[in-house]
Amino acid sequence: MISAELSSYAILAMGGFAAGAMFGRKLALEAAGALHALENRLGAMEHRMVEPRMHGASAPAATDAHAAALTRLAGAIEKHAAAIDDHGAATVAAAVEGNAAASASVASK
Question: CA torsion angle for 33, 36, 37, 42 (degrees, to 10)?
Fold first, then answer.
């Protein structure tokens, strides 16, 4: 009788452990989902409250800065294109001079 009583306690404990594990897993998943939803809500609220203040004051200055940067970039691109043209012309001139010198040395032999 004592062994039957002990075995019933063991079975009850194992069943309680299994039920607790399943319920605990479900509870942990629900808590994680609730925490994720709370983080999303806080992030959205922070975005609504902080972002307009940050961008509202600096928007004209940022637009002017971007326009100035684009103007400087356009000037740099034009200078670079002119340098490429000059280099290409110099390369062609050097090739023509080299061919002329080679032709003259061949003709003099």
Answer: 160
Q: Which whole-number Å values give the CA distances from 67 to 24, 52, 58, 71, 79, in the listed order?
A: 58, 22, 14, 6, 19
Q: Would the pTM count as exceeding 0.85?
A: no
Determine the straight-line distance between the first and last CA of the chain, rounded to whole angstroms.
126
**How far apart (Å, rounded) are the C-alpha atoms in residues 50 and 57?**
12
Q: Which two tokens stand for residue 35?
A: 């925490």
- Cα distances (angstroms) measured from residue 66 to each of 46, 79, 98: 27, 20, 47
- pLDDT tens, residue by residue, 59-78: 566 688 888 899 999 999 99
Q: What are the helix (H) ranges across the chain?
A: 2-108
Would you state the structure tokens that stand for residue 32, as one six-digit string? 């994680």
Q: Amino acid identity, residue 60?
A: P
